[in-house]
Amino acid sequence: MGCGPGRGEPQRVAYGPTEIEKLDIYKTRVARAPIFVFIHGGTWRTGSSRRSAFPAELFVDHGAHYVALDFINVLDAGGDLRVMADQVRRGIAWVYRNAESFGGDPNRLYIGGHSSGGHSSGGHSSGGHSSGGHLCGVALVTDWQKDFGLPADMVKGGLCMSGMYDLKPVRLSWRSSYVKFDDAMEHDMSSIRRLDMIRAAVTVTYGTFETPEFQRQGRDFAAALREAGRKVTLIELPHFAHLEAEESLSNPYGPNGRAAIEMMGLARV
Fold it and tell me: Could you tell me which residues come within 8 angstroms of residue 122 by beta carbon, excluding any fewer than 6 positions away?
């Protein structure tokens, strides 16, 4: 898929002091365009902005800027997911603050995340942890006003694809061998427990060929959002496994691509 011929390299910018804290901006030709920030997955251990280029063409062709974040992996963070979440949040805050410098509209900022660490990794990693979907949920419960001095509702929508929103089951899994869970991290990094912080409209998607836990977490997160009076759309992807679900973000006729277009109110330009 890639970003298509003739599109050129993205604009790569630092949003923080360390080497990994950079982001790639794929610009559309539309003036003052909405922005979609993508948070890659990869069991919190792998993935990169470069391998997250594949949906760029969809957004650029529909009049939106596409931004792919790079951030630390959990091994380099000493097993602490909060270090990853902090970088993701600072990356999103940078995009809001600097939107106009690349022709973006800060008042139409959307975020999304999925897993598997790049769609070229092969195989059906339906047991893989959707760290991008998880970190998207975590970004949505950020107190932008208190922590960044930015508008509480600066993120207008979030596309949480095949994510985990309660980390208790994850803490009980083999992933606790490299994520150094404690009660505080489990709570802080479980977006379903902090629904009062969510200001954005949320779209939750999962594939019916993903593991039962992914499906359950998606349904439970959407139900909890609805119960809390938040704006939420739940989309089930029939016959989609984990990797196909991610790949569908690059296709305007694929379920996740269509969900992104509808969430942002985009039309092909």
Answer: none
